[in-house]
Design brief:
The protein is elongated and about 60 Å long. By secondary structure, it is an alpha/beta fold. Helix 1 runs parallel beside helix 3. The chain has a three-stranded parallel sheet with strand order 1-2-3, covered by helices on one side. The chain has one domain: HUPs (Rossmann fold). This is Universal stress protein.
Amino acid sequence: MRAVVWLVEGTWPACVDAVRVHAPHAREVVLLHVSGSEVPGVAHGAFAGLMGRGRAWEADPGDRVEALGDGSAAELLDAAADRLGRPCVREERAGRPEREVVA
């Protein structure tokens, strides 16, 4: 049996504990985190539309928000894998969660 555990920032510890209790003999455990593209998109749009006039494109805050999100997702997956305490697959996806989780 393959158990896929969808992790989000607020509830991931309970999800990992649940898979340890309810699927202890799963052949494979996949820890899945989905980063939405909305927040970096809003930052890109705000910079381009409101604050981007007269500024260099290297200062686009959307790029920084994306980088912070990637680092945060990696930390969350690492913490979840440590809490799980067994071999697992770590998977990070980007996009709309309602589509990525069921894909």
